[in-house]
Write a structure and sequence with these properties.
Its cofactor is heme b; Ca(2+). The chain has 212 residues and is an all-alpha fold. It contains ten helices and two strands; from the N terminus they run αααααβαβαααα.
Length: 212
């Protein structure tokens, strides 16, 4: 549709970022103002490459802060971008073991039971079983942070963020100030979506997003 109206003008990279922005907005989150003008890669699309750039599900605070610092984010922005976990689901095979360290908030027993019922050991090796990230999994809000503080986090990072002295104050702040979370998230979103992009005469503008 876009290519038919504006041939060779709008890149797939810009379409993807605008779609992500609108997904956040229509689910109740902030309306992020994003810079446009990205160009598409001239290399063949690769799901494996895209997946390899995502933070692993078992990553802790140190790893998360390192990844996002390399993209120009502050600690506050790093904690805010992790708040995107307020939407969606976690696949069962990504759930951490229940052997927690003293750097993690103990999991609420009721949640532990729910996860055991929703993700029996057999299907954990599959990608078809999942649990919701929080009770408002279709609403972009700050419930994620309150959940993390009360032992209702799903992933390792969810249970470590509240106790780490670098990130804990921001978790507490975002849990009580949704507007503050939205502001920090918007800043982080712009930095993340602007990192390593092609502009100017670099790359191409694809007529079809799944082809060169």
């Amino acid at each position: 549709m876009v290519e038919a109206v504006c041939p060779k003008k709008v890149s797939c990279a810009d379409i993807l970022i605008l779609a992500a922005r609108e997904a956040v907005a229509v689910s109740g989150g902030p309306q992020v103002i994003v810079p446009l003008g990205r160009r598409d890669s001239s290399s063949p699309p690769s799901y494996k490459l895209a997946d390899s750039l995502l933070p692993p599900a078992n990553l802790g605070v140190d790893g998360v802060l390192h990844i996002f610092a390399n993209k120009g984010m502050s600690i506050e922005e790093s904690v805010a971008i992790v708040g995107a976990h307020t939407l969606g689901v976690t696949h069962c095979h990504n759930l951490p073991s229940h052997h927690l360290s003293n750097t993690q908030v103990p999991m609420d027993p009721a949640l532990d039971l729910m996860l055991s019922l929703g993700c029996p050991l057999g299907p954990r090796s599959q990608n078809t079983s999942f649990v919701f990230n929080d009770p408002t999994a279709f609403i972009f809000d700050n419930v994620y942070y309150a959940n993390a503080m009360s032992g209702h986090g799903i992933l390792r990072i969810d249970s470590e963020l509240p106790l780490d002295p670098r990130t804990g104050p921001f978790v507490k702040h975002f849990a009580s100030d949704q507007d503050g979370f939205f502001r920090a998230f918007s800043s982080a979103f712009v930095k993340l979506s602007s990192f390593g992009v092609l502009t100017g005469n670099e790359g191409v503008i694809r007529a079809s997003c799944d082809k060169i």
